[in-house]
Amino acid sequence: MNTSTSIDFTVIICTYNRCENLSMCIDALSDQEGVEGIEWEVLIVDNNSSDDTQNTVQKLADNSTLNIRYAFESEQGLNYARNMGIRESNSQYFAYIDDDITVSKNWLASLYQTLTTNDADAAGGRIHLDPDITLPRWITVNPEMYGFLGHQDYGDQGLKLDGVKRYPFGGNMAFNRRVPERIGYFNTNLGRKGEGRKKGELFKGAETDYFHRLNESGDATIYYAPDAIVYHHILPHQLEKDYFLTIHKNAGYQKAFHDGKTYTRKLFGVPLFLFPQTIRAGLNFTFETLKNGSDTSFRKRMTLTHFIGSISGYINSNKSNKSNNQHG
């Protein structure tokens, strides 16, 4: 791990086959205000893209006033790319934005001030959805659904986050260099693979594990910076019901498959308490659908899908453990 620091801040953009988005990201970063006293760079991590990402980055670097560097990560997966960003950056602080994000003018200055003023381990700001996007009714009837599109807003006042129930989202999070020195890298068993369009690629919330580990390390200082605002430009496939259902099924599967806890009462490797929970979720979804329609009940359908994914994850984990024991 690179522990030396020669500049103040690195903005890390992890990208895969979205070279057409990069100029939008760079244009917004070029408009940063209040950064005159900050020495910073942009590091674009190419996660084994098959499009024109490398050439695009070179052209952007040649024509921008920003210090833009390119790094290549051959192992497919968002957390592999994030870890490459940690290794390749040489700054005291580093932040991640996604390749479908544009930042506000005060974004970097706000994050940097929050990190330095509070001697913080981590910080993050607001993520607002692209105002030009039209959301379907099954999302707008339940404001909680916005969070699954990356929306995050804890209000106008800065505050300390616990890293368990409240923590920055992956599209707008920043860290002190001492964090990976203390807890290591992002878990590469978790997180999105590829473009996130296929069922086997679409895994969300890998940063959840990282913030939980930071919290468990003791005395974690994580802050919310309300003026560090970014905008998420949503792709059409991210507004389909199948996208939301796949996220939730995969989240349940992944959590169960990697669950290291020991349960004494199981059936086919599945903890028994999960079966009545799944039945209740199915009944809640059915009753809500009959009462208010499928748009209103869709959030409960997502919960049911999460439980189904969990059952599948435990069953496959049980099979995998048996197979390993037989060949061990």
Q: Indicate the radius of gyration in whole angstroms.
A: 21 Å
The name CATH uses for the topology of the largest domain is Spore Coat Polysaccharide Biosynthesis Protein SpsA, Chain A
| Secondary-structure element series | EHEHEHEEHEHEEHHEHEEHH
**What gap, in angstroms, lies between the N and C termini?**
33 Å
Question: What is the level-2 CATH architecture name of the largest domain?
Answer: Alpha-Beta Complex
Quote the average pLDDT.
91
Q: Identify the CATH class of the largest domain.
A: Alpha Beta
- How many helices? The count is 10
Classified in CATH, the superfamily of the largest domain is Spore Coat Polysaccharide Biosynthesis Protein SpsA, Chain A
Residue fraction in strands: 15-25%
Which bin fits the share of residues in helices?
Answer: 40-55%
CA-based shape: globular
Structural class estimated from helices and strands: alpha/beta
- Work out the count of structural domains: 2
